[in-house]
User: What shape does this take?
Amino acid sequence: MMNNTVEVRGLVVVRGRHRVLDGLDLDVAPGVTGLLGPSGCGKSTLLRSVVGVQRVAGGAVRVLGQDAGAAALRRRVGYVTQAASVYDDLTVAENLRFFARVLGVTRHDVERAVESVDLGEHRDQVVGRLSGGQRSRASLAVAMLGEPDLLVLDEPTVGLDPVLRRDLWAVFHRIADGGATVLVSSHVMDEAERCDRLLLMRDGAVLTDDTPDGVKRRTGAGDVETAFLRLVEDLA
Amino acid sequence: MRTPGRVAGAVALRVLTQLRRDRRTLVMLLALPCLLVVLLWWMFEDAPGSSFDRLGPGLLALFPFVVMFLVTSVTMLRERSSGTLERLLTLPAGRLDLILGYALAFGVVAAVQSTLAVAVSVGPLGLDVAGPVWLLVVVAVADAVLGTALGLFVSAFARTEFQAVQFLPAFVIPQILLCGLLLPREVLPSGLEEVSSVLPLSYATDAMQTLSRSTATGAVLADLAVVVGFGAACLALGAATLRRRTA
Assistant: This one.
């Protein structure tokens, strides 16, 4: 059963009195998996649990055969939070060199990461002066340092122009082609078509786990957004 | 692949690069303590006696402590709200390693800051100290590092900028009131005197006051050891309160 990179069983996360995730089960295999659902449905909480920074109330989260957040995983999992977690007052290259030192990877990795997100031209610019999309890409480059086996990306394409979005998805697929698992969240349903596999989420529960075509076929819908609506109506 | 100090070195280098980029902050960090000492000297210029000699060393202990406390709290809060701390905690970096990195960077700044303030005091302003001047610098640097350590520790409890700033009156001003600078600690009412003797700034002030009066260094070194001990304890607590998992 070790074909799955991520295995979540009965995950419960409580915030205040609200059960954000209530007994959630989930598997993620290599390839590009999209975690789609409206804002506030628990996507970020789920991703934080996978990375091991979320305090959980119950259940098990296994990543690459170990408990999420295990020390041995810190080198193998790359994570991009919703905020571009880079230092605004450093240049792109300085940010990457810093995180590379923390990870203990070489300058060669830094160069490769800069190139793979296409920030070569801006490498010596201070991150705070870059556009939103460029900042997200700088943050993505940090997560790609050291070639992680699992890349967890929380809404990396929010607010980007369509061309850039398409390019980023191409980057995700390139990473996945190398054998890695890429788990990407989004609240924009039209990004679903770009995923190998889809997890549709609503109110802290996974509605479906299928390929984009599979979801449409099963619901008889023409697009994923309609499929999502039908799945929600079926539940009601 | 785990070299001790690799992460601490990386963090220290990064913080110093960020400071170098922020010229105004850097200038203020280095110039403000000097200007405050000048202000103090000027205040007492026409006063009888040697008040500047009496108060100067104590304030040399105080300024770096307060400044570094504030700078560190704000730095840590920024690190939390930008998401960079969360990212760092998902990487192979020991929590104590991270904390030591900040202490190292701000320690370097503190050393420069304190050396400048002491140089201005004993040089142009003619502050008269009985003990060795180098020890005055050492105590001032230790105070600054203590401020950094305390700032790192309490920043774990600040959720917002407003809270972080309020920690100054909460954790620093009581220490200033009770450290013996305003009133000798012996004449504090019982209870308060005991409180003042568990506050680190009291030992820093003691060390400075001893240095200004006597050439004996034994008592100063003992006080210094207490200050360093408090600093180390705060750093350890800071590392312990840094949680990888949050709600």
The first helix of chain B runs from residue 6 to 21. Chain B has a mean pLDDT of 89. Chain B touches chain A through 29 residues (CB under 8 Å). The two ends of chain B are 31 Å apart (CA to CA).
